[in-house]
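Teaching assistant here, posting this on the class forum so everyone can see the example we discussed in section. The complex has two components, and the goal was to see what a joint structure prediction looks like when all of them are supplied at once.
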Amino acid sequence: MQIRLENLTKAYDKGAFKAVDQLSLTFEPQKLTVLIGPSGCGKTTVLKMINRLIERTGGDILFDGKSIDQIDRIQLRRQIGYAIQNIGLFVHMNVFDNIAVVPRLLKWPEKKIKSRVEELLELVNLDPYVHRYKYPAQLSGGQKQRVGVARSLAADPKVILMDEPFGAIDPINREKLQDAFIDIQEKIKKTIIFVTHDIREAIKLGDKIVIMDNGRIVQYGDTVKVVNKPKNAFVESLLGSDRVLKGLEMMRVKDNYATDFLSINVQESTTVGKALEYLENKKKPYAYVIGQKDVLLGYCTLEDLRKRNFHDELIGQIQKIESVQPHSNLMEAIIKMVESGSTSCPVVDSELQLLGIIRFQTLVDIMSTYERVEV
Amino acid sequence: MALFSYLFDNIPYILEKTWEHLYLFLISWSFAVITGIIIGILSSRGGKEKIGRVVLSITGATQAIPSTAVIALVFIFMGIGALPAMFALFIYTLVPVTFNTASGLINCSPDMKEAALGMGMTKRQILFKVELPTSVPAIASGVRTAAVINIGTAAIASMIGAGGLGEIIFIGLRLMDVSKIFAGALPVALLAISIDALLALAERAIMSEGLLLSKEN
């Protein structure tokens, strides 16, 4: 569903104060758009005007070209998912009933609701058989938030509004929820409008980013472009001096790894001498060692192997190495490199099969493309 | 054994008075519970929060008026008999029910209400599916307090000729007959305790387990 804001305005005190001022914007279908700005910039007001929790005072909101005034308020809200910072789970209902609220309002048959709830719990990584009859009081903060997300997806809405949904979670669990949420959005491809004041979260989650100040849009565009090319000093300061590093956080390993790595397929009979000969032939200082089904076992270096006995089995001389997965971001790759004191990091899939390599030089090249704003 | 002598010698009479007492209680309390919950709901509706606060402070203050005074006032305007007594009990019982209903509803978590509204519940659905169920502990405690107060106050209502166990107590007081006072007071106490226990069971049956758990945390 395409949502278009046309000169959207919310004035208070008979126009003396405009929380949102003549804002025009088209939200791209199936993309996650983040609204961000300092508190009081009007981002939450915009969000709440879309499901009419706040009534606009001017302009229009169009759903696939249809004015919001032509849609019944209650029906509209049932078709739009809504998740808020404090979740607002119904404490007197168990997980199942909480998620089933909107489907029941829409009078879905109970059988369909049951399978939908199970599907959603699995989607948000909660075991349906363990959690569906628990009450909110029996869940941890992160679990509650997952249920909140599942609830907002319950009736399969095309649009989901999220108002700082991970804001009240501790940093470690917030990271986990964000990662899980990225995977979820990859599967469901909903039009999501996401309000946050956390720039890291915005860069990490947003396909597109809307930077707001004083009820107006300062910059709107693809997150990558906004981070690379801040329009003015306000945007640059909002992004922070470490925006280059933040930019790495939104880029995935899968789009940036190389496959020209050197690997040795080890068998029980493989000796140190054979490996040495191979490395010397290739003129490389090290190689990854893989076992059956290409599973990464570690690596071996020329320097280290030279100190060993030629006839030793290579399998006993393999050094452990940290790896990243395709959905990891480039920041995680850097951290792994720093931790292992290496200038590269292997990329493996969920079965630990070696897929490729990510090199420090690639990251440096990416960072050098970032532009500075002239002040 | 002198204490129990009157009680054991006059069981049919005491049962009759107990029944009268229960009757006074049941009628006045039932009406008060229904009316109190309705007033509580009305005064807590959106946009009427100010009225709600006023109702809360009035009902709160009314609780400080002694029950004897309420009965005396009703007697002045309505005379004697069971009906004025029930009216006085009704007024006096209304207070805790209204107070607790309104405060339970007003204190319902704003996050839950926002989520409910945002998900497309109508005002009525929010009331019946969210606000009332989460207010069960508050309302139930008002209803139980009301019952206990009502049964106790009904004993005093005998002063204006309502009948009930109070009659035995007042006769006993006048005659300085401890056994008689006891024969009236014991059934009143037992009545109050057993009604409260019954209501506690009903509360547990209605209240969601989720609320119980969230109260423990």
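For the discussion questions: The domain at 255-365 of chain A is CATH 3.10.580.10 (CBS-domain). The longest strand of chain A covers residues 17-27. Think about how each of these relates to the inputs above.
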